[in-house]
Inverse folding.
């Protein structure tokens, strides 16, 4: 694998700026969510809406980053691109897991006891997407040889991102409750709920970028230290 | 192109001589069908017809996983994988040859499974059979293309027998959904639904092109 110059200095600076932005946005987010009106039908449970969709966007973004990192690795063969793909997959998997946890919590609160899960087409296909990225992480841990692992993972990451539009197409074919698009299309956000939703999206976007850059930096530093340790061992 | 043709003939000849992959897939498919008999409550043939697309497609996918697992496993003997990597020309043609051979093998297994299902469960699948064959043939393009690519990767990993289904099955869900939805209509004697057909053609095209291009990076130098 080609070793390129380490961009960790720029990442450290970026992390500092992103950290301050995230801190400010998080404070504003907590304040606007606490002060947002309580939904007359769903009660306090509706406030999960300010967290759940932003987590979904982060999950999809993570999988796109994984594919881009994988594609760049196959093209250039540089380790930093593979580290970007790992960062995208891991942060995307965390966001996807949280999305899949917050959804059922809202469902039980809104639809009553016993309604943790419905076999809504979008919900089910998102769960399958989560399995794709668990498979991606398993592939990484079961494959031997750094270069081969990076190559195979890149291929699977690209294959996985192609599934996103195909899965959305399947939703139209198999139907289902289609709970999610109905909510967005009908403009169901009540008065005073638009701002917390917007701030929630911004906060989680910056949280995603912060975690992505942080994980990317850790990956590059770790790979660099392993390379130095190997060289020292070979020399001495 | 010659590489693809040579590999297709080589794989079919090897299978004809040993028949191990074919027999394993057929026996496995019959067993799954028998297991389903114990898994569902007693029902008449009309009700069974409603379950038939799902049961058959689950069986087809599981049998395909068994067959795909062997696609590159036989190339590990005598380090034939290295010889494949050294073959002249675009490596995508190796993928085409392997995928085409698997397509033929799993099609044979699927036809025999459907025949046994029809005979033993008194379900009439003949009505709309031409449409069903078209759907199965198209779905097999996706299964074989993505399955061949992932088989080449998993065969050189630890826990390869576990890894292949874990990698493959999530990627086949759109194919499975479209095929089951299409077969539900054709088994009832209706025409092939256009949306299922369209989806299978698009998925098959996307997967085939993508896997052809990505196969370049699968074999070690």
């Amino acid at each position: 694998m080609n070793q390129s110059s380490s961009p960790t200095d720029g990442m450290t600076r970026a992390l500092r700026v992103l950290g301050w932005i995230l801190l400010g946005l998080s404070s504003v987010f907590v304040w606007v969510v606490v002060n947002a009106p309580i939904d007359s039908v769903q009660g306090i449970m509706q406030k999960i809406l300010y967290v759940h969709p932003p987590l979904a966007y982060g999950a999809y973004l993570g999988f796109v980053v994984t594919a881009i990192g994988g594609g760049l690795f196959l093209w250039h063969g540089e380790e930093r691109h593979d580290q970007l793909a790992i960062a995208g997959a891991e942060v995307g998997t965390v966001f996807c897991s949280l999305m899949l946890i917050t959804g059922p919590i809202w469902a039980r609160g809104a639809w009553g006891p016993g309604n943790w899960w419905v076999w809504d087409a979008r919900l089910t296909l998102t769960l399958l997407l989560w399995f794709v990225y668990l498979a991606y992480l398993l592939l990484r841990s079961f494959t031997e040889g750094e270069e081969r692992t990076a190559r195979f993972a890149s291929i699977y990451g690209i294959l996985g991102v192609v599934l996103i539009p195909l899965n959305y197409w399947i939703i139209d074919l198999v139907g289902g409750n289609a709970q999610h698009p109905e909510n967005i299309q009908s403009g169901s956000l009540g008065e005073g709920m638009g701002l917390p939703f917007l701030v929630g999206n911004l906060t989680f976007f910056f949280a995603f970028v912060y975690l992505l850059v942080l994980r990317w930096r850790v990956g590059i530093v770790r790979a660099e230290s392993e390379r130095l340790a190997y060289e020292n061992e070979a020399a001495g | 192109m010659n590489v693809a043709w040579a590999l297709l003939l080589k794989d079919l000849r090897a299978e004809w001589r040993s028949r191990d992959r074919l027999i394993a897939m057929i026996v496995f498919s019959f067993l799954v069908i028998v297991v389903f008999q114990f898994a569902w409550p007693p029902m008449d043939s009309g009700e069974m017809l409603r379950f038939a697309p799902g049961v058959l497609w689950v069986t087809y996918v599981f049998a395909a996983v068994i067959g795909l697992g062997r696609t590159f496993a036989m190339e590990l003997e005598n380090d034939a994988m290295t010889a494949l990597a050294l073959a002249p020309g675009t490596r995508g043609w190796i993928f085409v040859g392997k995928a085409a051979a698997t397509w033929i093998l799993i099609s044979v297994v699927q036809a025999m499974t459907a025949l046994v299902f029809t005979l033993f469960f008194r379900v009439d699948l003949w009505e709309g059979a031409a449409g069903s064959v078209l759907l199965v043939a198209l779905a097999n393009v996706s299964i074989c293309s993505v399955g061949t690519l992932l088989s080449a990767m998993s065969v050189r990993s630890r826990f390869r027998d576990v890894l292949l289904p874990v990698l493959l099955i999530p990627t086949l869900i759109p194919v499975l959904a479209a095929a089951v939805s299409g077969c539900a209509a054709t088994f009832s004697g209706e025409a092939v639904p256009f949306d299922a057909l369209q989806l299978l053609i698009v998925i098959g095209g996307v997967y085939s092109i993508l896997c052809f291009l990505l196969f370049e990076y699968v074999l070690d130098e």
In short: The mean pLDDT of chain B is 89. The interface with chain A takes residues 146, 149-150, 153, 156-159, 163, 166-167, 170-171, 173-174, 177-178, 181, 195-196, 199, 202-203, 206-207, 210, 214, 217-218, 220 of chain B (CB under 8 Å).
